[in-house]
Amino acid sequence: MVENSQNEVRLPAPSAAPMLFALGITLAFAGVVTSVSVSIVGIVIAIAGAVSWFSEVLPTEHEEMVTVTPESVVVVQAKLPVAYLEVGEQLNRAVLPLEIFPYTAGIKGGIAGGVVMAVLAVVQGIIFHGSPWYTINILAATAMPSLAQATTATLSAFNPETLAIALLIHATASLLVGLLYGVMLPMFPRYPAFFAAIVAPLLWTGLLWATLDVINPVLDLRIEWRWFILCQIAFGAVAGYVVDRTEKVRTLQHLPFAVRTGIEARYRANDDQKGDA
User: Fold this and answer.
1) Residue 277 domain-assigned (yes or no)
2) 103-112 tens-digit pLDDT
3) How much is the pTM?
């Protein structure tokens, strides 16, 4: 909030775009268990909400002047003394954490964890079904309804189309989870390895166990849950290790929005950081 005069203050302009975007995302996921038309409507609404939302903050933030009248200000005398926060040598803590991992750490962690998980999945297919393609074809069934009634022999055979689809699904999921690790691990500074290797994989496995019959019925019928949990733990341990070994960078939470998004010149951010150091 920035005061322009004694009777006016500058505030962010009101907007319904965030609620519109949230509604679209909700409908998009609701269509998974109802109808594809619901998902299509949700995606359209989400895109419209996102475009509207971005246009209100880029390239300049929409603001409005609000008049403050003496009648609208109510002063209540505090019964207890209030200790005011004084600005010290370092920044006051506004948002946790103050240091985060760069996004590249999450990408590298997702790639490393995805490779280890893929190797274990292939080993599982060889041990239990005598084919390295079995688990790959089951994963591809997420996007290929034609595999719903496939036999074990079909799922054990090599298919370049299913291989490409499985690689795309696995790579996308690995990168997204890796980025999630990069964002969340700084919030657990005491036991990052425990969260990455145990807590997160078990939570993810529980979510899949509850929804897998809708997401991938073929995988739900044929999955080996013990081996699946082992693969998730291996992914989490490797991805978490790679992310945690990366040097953290300081957040830009104290800088204006235009500087944080790169709209204004970068040298201003450097000057601000040098002044705060």
Assistant:
1) no
2) 888 899 999 9
3) 0.56
